[in-house]
Amino acid sequence: MTEETQKIHFKIYRYNPETDKAPVMKDYYLEVPKATDMMLLSALIQLKAQDETIAFRRSCREGVCGSDGMNINGRNGLACITTLSSLKQPIVIRPLPGFPVVRDLVVDMEQFYRQYEKIKPYLQNDEPAPAKERLQSPKDRKKLDGLYECILCACCSSSCPSFWWNPDKFIGPAGLLQAYRFIVDSRDNQTTERLKDLEDPFSVFRCRGIMNCVDVCPKGLNPTKAIGKIRSQLLKEGT
Amino acid sequence: MAIPTFTFDAVIIGAGGAGMRAALALAKSGYNTALVSKVFPTRSHTVSAQGGITCAIGNAHEDDWRWHMYDTVKGSDFIGDQDCIEYMCKTGPECVYELEHMGLPFSRTDDGKIYQRPFGGQSRNFGGEQAARTCAAADRTGHALLHTLYQQNLQANTHVFSEWYAIDLVKASHGKGFAGVTVMNIETGEVAFMHARAIVFATGGAGRIFQSTTNALINTGDGIGIALRAGLPVQDMEMWQFHPTGIAGAGTLVTEGCRGEGGYLINKDGERFMERYAPHAKDLASRDVVSRAMALEIRAGNGFETKGVQHVKLNLVHLGADLIKSRLPGIRELSMTFAGVDPIIEPIPVVPTCHYMMGGIPTNVHGEVLTVDADGTERSVEGLYAAGECACVSVHGANRLGGNSLLDLVVFGRAAGLHVEDQLQEHLPLHPVSDDDIEAATGRLRRWQDNKDGESVSDIKAEMQKVMQEDFGVFRTAEYMASGVEKIKGLRERLQHAVLTDHSKVFNTARIEALELDNLMEVAAATAFAADFRTESRGAHSREDFPKRDDENWLVHSLYFAEGDRLSTRGVNMKPKTMDPFEPVERVY
Ligand SMILES: Cc1cc2nc3c(=O)[nH]c(=O)nc-3n(C[C@H](O)[C@H](O)[C@H](O)COP(=O)(O)OP(=O)(O)OC[C@H]3O[C@@H](n4cnc5c(N)ncnc54)[C@H](O)[C@@H]3O)c2cc1C
Ligand code: SF4
Ligand code: SF4
Ligand code: FES
């Protein structure tokens, strides 16, 4: 260590089902410049150069692909847009909570994807398409802002207690955000059916408004608000 | 070693824009299709595309696909194939309306149509006024496009093999064709053989051969490596686009759409220097032109310096907070995260950064892979296709225009899907295979398993990236390239002895990175040899020792074969079907 560098202490969750009976938290150290704007993902890549057995997912390294959601000092986030300087040491890194661990920081996201698929995340319109585009006013298009940008990173659903308890029945914040994205799209004409699919006591109504999802979403999206809108539409239709 | 076999009519390798568009075409055909991707589909690199998709739908002003074609041919510095460019520009509007009908959330004009913005190299009326031809969903067009295509594939019940890695092609036990591909399930480490009548490569780019790139970490040129090892050629690999506006130090991109919306570049004196280099188009000149101008400004000492990195700046401040928030929200986010700069308040530090591979696996207009036999005859390889960035159709020639890649993906992804369907109906056979040929296509795995003493993957990768960055960057000369070629040859040899220390089965990402490095090295070698070969300057390939374009000798595609590092050339198609060709003229902006 020199005057310009500092040693950063990490504790990383390690588990390989082939060889390990139980997970362990392993210590790692990395020397980086003192005033660094390095992202956590870059640090993990450097640690992997030292110990190539550490497994994690990554792709875009700029916060748009949703690969590297993980639990960082107790909070879900994307490693690629989290600066080291924003984190207290030791930096404790665990896989996303609430999902089965495949290995190290890699979790099995099947349940999360199934819930997304359940809401029929594709535009439905049974009228024949025009020769050109379907028209949509800028005002109607604006309703999709804050919804369509979801990157399916699962930071939200993995921090939601209702999703932990009922991952098979509660759609969860990410899926519901997309459900609402299609409900409000002026080009989709299956709103009634979409709402009907959600009226059981679990799909939407398990949300307890705890707002963990909003708190952690790395894209600044607000699933709770979308859920509230679906709820009030359901209640309106119900009366 | 007998491994499990899966049998399909068609296997598509890659679930970016090109692969998913091809899969969608095939899903509707009823043929049994597999879509294989090393990452979950929406994590493919297409998700990063920002600015938009270009085509002449005329929502901002009167427009004509022929004007788009003219710009694309000129942008390509005249080695784009005109039959394919014609097909792309003409079919483009239909493909973009299709995307809209699928639900892509395009931004809108006041009258509710798809919003179009100006991009570099766009003109009206064959070289006239600046055009606005790039259809956009804010500055997240790739995300919107990729998610929409994934959603459509969900609805169509496409059989997705998510987090499966394609290793190598398997030869048919007789004759010249291919019978399938070996793959690995990343989660379990299980290796299998996918036996198929048709195979489509849609594996994307390879920007990770350079140190500094806008590309995702997964852009490792796997399709190129696989093709080269199978004895197939790659085309125009010297043509790498350096995007003018990568964030200095980080490499992350800020879209050309920023300049389309009215942003401009400045040097350390605050001068809008593009006015000197391209008096007419200024900041919206073609990317190769702008990148060279920036490099020259920095060389002349007119750049800024931040933490040892020389750069210029992109000014958006005058656009105002409202426009930046509504049209460029993602750029603002990236700039604040990676440069610590809010573009509403101050200009963004930018440098030319490796961005796009114009070269790739040569194909015809249907996406069928082309090869040249030992006796010089050119033929298509039955049942083998390529589309998207890994392919060289070639619609981009020596320099791609902004927004033309997303268009390429959907136009030729669809064309390949439709042609596969057609050929499946006609005749495509399921070729017989021998165990030996399957075994041969897992040879790389065994090498990584067996090597015991050697260098690490990360060390060799870092050295390769350094060589490519230093010797094959924006400006090139024979001297540096000759030594670069030698260094790459040395690294390629050392890679044969490199070691993997992690031999576990479950989600072994170190093994994947090792297999990827084999492919990166093939791409680096192809690039190095081809760059040294082309003794002229054209488009993105800029040689200080040969500063002029040389149409007499080089109005051709280059071809590289891995065996013996052999190079040759192929003619450029100058025969559009419905109009007269555009003859080569000097390229000014
Ligand atoms: C930051 C950025 C912004 C851009 N913006 C624009 C823009 O605004 N407009 C535009 O037109 N172009 C843009 N481009 C270019 C464009 O995004 C890409 O050229 C294009 O998305 C490539 O798409 P693709 O389908 O060919 O490949 P990709 O989207 O890269 O997908 C490749 C697929 O292949 C799979 N794959 C690769 N290797 C294997 C293997 N061995 N086994 C299994 N699967 C494999 C991957 O998992 C992935 O699914 C941009 C590029 C960058 C870097
Ligand atoms: S607000 Fe609802 S969805 Fe969000 S974390 Fe709380 S319970 Fe889960
Ligand atoms: S809503 Fe936010 S946190 Fe949840 S999956 Fe989407 S981007 Fe991730
Ligand atoms: S690597 Fe893509 S979101 Fe972090």
Helix/strand layout:
The complex is a heterodimer of chains A (239) and B (589).
Chain A: E1 5-14, E2 24-33, H1 40-50, E3 69-72, E4 75-78, E5 91-94, E6 101-103, E7 106-107, H2 110-118, H3 138-142, H4 161-165, H5 172-183, H6 191-196, H7 212-216, H8 223-238
Parallel strand pairs in A: 1-5
Antiparallel strand pairs in A: 1-2, 3-4, 3-5, 6-7
Helix pairs in contact in A: 2-5, 5-8
Chain B: E1 5-13, H1 17-27, E2 33-37, E3 53-54, H2 65-75, H3 82-102, E4 116-117, E5 134-135, H4 141-155, E6 159-162, E7 164-171, E8 178-185, E9 191-201, H5 222-229, E10 234-235, E11 240-247, H6 257-260, E12 264-266, H7 274-277, H8 287-299, E13 304-306, E14 309-315, H9 321-327, H10 329-338, E15 348-357, E16 361-362, E17 368-372, E18 378-386, E19 391-392, H11 404-426, H12 435-440, H13 443-450, H14 457-471, H15 478-495, H16 509-533, H17 551-554, E20 556-561, E21 566-571
Parallel strand pairs in B: 1-2, 1-9, 2-6, 9-18, 16-19
Antiparallel strand pairs in B: 3-5, 4-5, 7-8, 8-9, 10-20, 11-15, 12-14, 13-14, 14-15, 17-18, 20-21
Helix pairs in contact in B: 1-4, 1-11, 2-3, 3-11, 5-16, 14-15, 14-16, 15-16
The structure holds flavin-adenine dinucleotide, iron/sulfur cluster (2 copies) and FE2/S2 (inorganic) cluster.
One iron/sulfur cluster binds next to helix 7 and helix 8 of chain A.
Summarize the structure in short.
The complex is a heterodimer of chains A (239) and B (589). Chain A is 29% helix and 15% strand.
Q: What does this entry look like structurally?
A:
The complex is a heterodimer of chains A (about 240) and B (about 600). Chain A is of the alpha+beta class. Chain A is elongated. Chain A starts with a strand and ends with a helix. Chain B has about 600 residues and is α+β, with helices and mostly antiparallel strands. Chain B has 17 helices and 21 strands. In chain B, the strands form five sheets. In chain B, strands 1, 2, 6, 7, 8, 9, 17 and 18 form an eight-stranded mixed beta sheet that branches. In chain B, strand 8 and strand 9 form a beta hairpin. The chains are: A alpha+beta (about 240), B alpha+beta (about 600). At the A-B interface, loops of A face helix 3, helix 4, helix 10 and helix 16 of B. The complex binds flavin-adenine dinucleotide, iron/sulfur cluster (2 copies) and FE2/S2 (inorganic) cluster. The site of flavin-adenine dinucleotide has 44 residues of chain B, from helix 1, strand 2, helix 4, strand 7 and strand 15.
